[in-house]
Amino acid sequence: MTKESERSTIADVARRAGVSKATVSRFFNHRETLLTPEIARRVELAVAELGYSPSPMAQSLKRGRSRLIGLVVADITNPYSVAVLRGAEHACREAGYLVMLFNLGNDLERESAGIRALTSYKVEGFILNTMGHDAGAALETARQGKPVVLVDRLHRGLEVDFVSLDNWQAIELSGGHLLEAGYRDLLLVTEPLGTVSSRIERVQAFTQFVDATPGTTGACYESRAEDPSGLDAALLQLRQRAKGPCAVVSSNAVVSLRIVAAAARQGWRLGGDIGLVGIDDTPWAPYVGPGITAVSQPTDELGRLAAQCLMQRLQGLQAAPRSILLPGTLHARGSTQR
Amino acid sequence: MTKESERSTIADVARRAGVSKATVSRFFNHRETLLTPEIARRVELAVAELGYSPSPMAQSLKRGRSRLIGLVVADITNPYSVAVLRGAEHACREAGYLVMLFNLGNDLERESAGIRALTSYKVEGFILNTMGHDAGAALETARQGKPVVLVDRLHRGLEVDFVSLDNWQAIELSGGHLLEAGYRDLLLVTEPLGTVSSRIERVQAFTQFVDATPGTTGACYESRAEDPSGLDAALLQLRQRAKGPCAVVSSNAVVSLRIVAAAARQGWRLGGDIGLVGIDDTPWAPYVGPGITAVSQPTDELGRLAAQCLMQRLQGLQAAPRSILLPGTLHARGSTQR
DNA sequence: TTGTAAGCGTTATCAT
DNA sequence: ATGATAACGCTTACAA
C-alpha cells in the first residue's frame, strides 16, 4: 500500500492496471459476469497496491443512492431511543449501510429540518422515532417512495411499516400482575400525551383494562418534570380514594423514577404503602428501593426489526404497511409486594 | 414551492431565473461581493419557487469538504458516551455540520474500519471516544491533517486535542470525601484497564492519593461483568483487611451498580457496612439504597468543547494540541454516611 | 470482453 | 458582474 497523501481514485487504479476506468468500475460492480480472469487479477492487484476504495460520495452522486440510512430520534438522552438506535445501527451496518443520526433534542419543530437535512444527503430510507408533531417532511418523503419505518410512535396520515412494543399486552401484563398482588386502585402516570401515539395507546389500554376488570378503579395523570408537586397531589389523591391497596403503573422509566422520588418525599415504602410497576426495565431497577417491578421491552430486537423492514423495502418489497408488535416481559420485584 | 417529484438542481434554478448556473452558485457562496442586487433578487425568487437547496453530496465531491463530522464511540449503550454525543451533536449542528455516527459496540477491532468508513464519506474531522486499541487509521487520519479530537480516552502516539474529566481531581475529591466521612481502608474497583487511558489514570490517581494520605490503605480490583464472584471475593477481602470502616471507589456508573449488587448479595448496608462513592452521577443514584454518592461529569460541556475544538481546527487553528480537563462535582448521599 | 464518453450537481477558472 | 466550461470520482450506454 503506497502512502499517497491523497486518496487514490478510480483513474489511478486504471492507469496502474493498464485498463480503463470502466473496467475498474466493473471489477467492483459486476466482477463475475463481465470480466476476464486475467484482467480482473490485474485490477485486483492495482487496487490492493493503491489501497483503493470507491468514494461513496461520487457513487452516490452518480447512482442517486448512498448506502446511507437516516435515523431521527426525538431524544438521544432517552435510553429507549439509544437501545433502539443500537439495534438498528447494527442491522444496518451488517447490510452494508451506514447510519446518519439526527437528534431532535426534544425540539418538536426540528423534525422536518432533520428529515430534510438527511434527505439532502440522499439517505435511502428513514427510521423515525420522533414526536410525530411536524411530519410534513416525513409525509413528503414517503410520497416520494423513500421507505420509512416508524418506531414506537405512529404518525397520523403516514401509512408505513411500524415497529413497537405491544402496548396493550404490556399494560395488561402490568395490570394483571398488580391484581394478582392484591392491588385494586390504580393510577397510570405518563408523560404529557401530546400527539405521541405510544403514550396515548397506553392510556387507552389502561382505561380499558380497568373498565373490563370488576372491582378495580383507575385514573390517569400526566406528569411533567417541572411539576413534582402536581405528581405528589395526584398520588395523595390516589391513596385517599383507595379503599384497599393502591398502585401506580408508570408509562416509562423516566416516570418511574419520578414516582420513586415522590414516594420518597412522602415517606412511603414502595410495595407496602404504594405499588409500582413500570414499563421499561433498566439495569438499576432491581436496586432502587425494594426493586422496581418492570415490563422490559425487547429494544434491541425492535431496532433490528426496524432496520430489517427498511432493508426489505429497499430491495423492492411492495407489501402493504406492516405493523410489528413485540410483547414485553414482566420482571416482578419488591415494588409490587405488599 | 412547486412539487416536483425530483429535487430541483442548480440548473433548474438557473433556467428559471434566466441566469447561468455559475450565477446561482455565486448567489449561495459569494452573494454580497459578486452579485448585482437585481440579479440576486431574481435568483432568490427562483430558489424560493423551486424550493431548491444545494446537494451536499455534489458540493462535497467538488469541494472535497462535506460539512460532516465523524463521531466514533466505543459503546453507544454507555450513558457517558451518549451524553457526550449529545453535547457534540448539538455544537456541530449549530456550526452547520451534521454528525455521522459509528458505534463500535465494544468491538475493539472495528475502530479502524469505522474511521475508514467515515473517511470515505469525506468527513472533515473526527471526535473519537474509543478504546485506542486499534488506532492505525486514526494515526493516518491525523497525519493527513484531518482534525481529530479525543474524548475521555487518549491514544498513545496520537498528539491531538483532548477533552476529558480531570481524573486526578475527581479521584481526590472522592477520596477526600471518604476520609472526611471516616473511611480509612479503600478499594478502587474499575473495569478491566486494557489500554483505556482514563481507567489507567484513575487507578494511578487513586494509588497516589492513598500513598500520600497517612493512615489509609488502598487496593485496586478489575471487575468484569461475567465474574461477579470475583468481585464478591475482592470486597470480602477489603472488609477483612480493614481495621476500621472501609469503602469502595467505583470507576464508573456501570461498576457502581455491580458494587450495589454485590453488597446486596452479602446483605451489607451501603454506607454503614461499606462506603461507596462512584464516578459518574446518574438520575437513579439518589434512589438506589440510601443514595449513592457520586462525582458527576460535565458531560454536555465535554461534548460541546470537543466539537468546539474541532471547529476551531477546521477554521485553520494551528496551535499545539490542547488538553482540556474539566472538574467533576461531588454529590454526597447516603452511601458515604456511616 | 473492453474502451470511450457523457453525465450526476456542484464550484472554480477562465473569458467576456 | 456574468457566462461558458472544465473538473470532482464515479457508473453506464454505446461503440468497438
UniProtKB/TrEMBL annotation, chains A, B:
<dbReference type="GO" id="GO:0003700">
    <property type="term" value="F:DNA-binding transcription factor activity"/>
</dbReference>
<dbReference type="GO" id="GO:0000976">
    <property type="term" value="F:transcription cis-regulatory region binding"/>
</dbReference>
<dbReference type="Pfam" id="PF00356">
    <property type="entry name" value="LacI"/>
</dbReference>
<dbReference type="InterPro" id="IPR000843">
    <property type="entry name" value="HTH_LacI"/>
</dbReference>
<feature type="DNA-binding region" description="H-T-H motif">
    <location>
        <begin position="9"/>
        <end position="28"/>
    </location>
</feature>
<protein>
    <submittedName>
        <fullName>Dehydrogenase</fullName>
    </submittedName>
</protein>
<keyword id="KW-0238">DNA-binding</keyword>
<dbReference type="InterPro" id="IPR001647">
    <property type="entry name" value="HTH_TetR"/>
</dbReference>
<dbReference type="InterPro" id="IPR010982">
    <property type="entry name" value="Lambda_DNA-bd_dom_sf"/>
</dbReference>
<dbReference type="Pfam" id="PF13377">
    <property type="entry name" value="Peripla_BP_3"/>
</dbReference>
<keyword id="KW-0805">Transcription regulation</keyword>
<dbReference type="InterPro" id="IPR046335">
    <property type="entry name" value="LacI/GalR-like_sensor"/>
</dbReference>
<feature type="domain" description="HTH tetR-type">
    <location>
        <begin position="1"/>
        <end position="46"/>
    </location>
</feature>
<keyword id="KW-0804">Transcription</keyword>
<dbReference type="InterPro" id="IPR028082">
    <property type="entry name" value="Peripla_BP_I"/>
</dbReference>
<feature type="domain" description="HTH lacI-type">
    <location>
        <begin position="8"/>
        <end position="63"/>
    </location>
</feature>
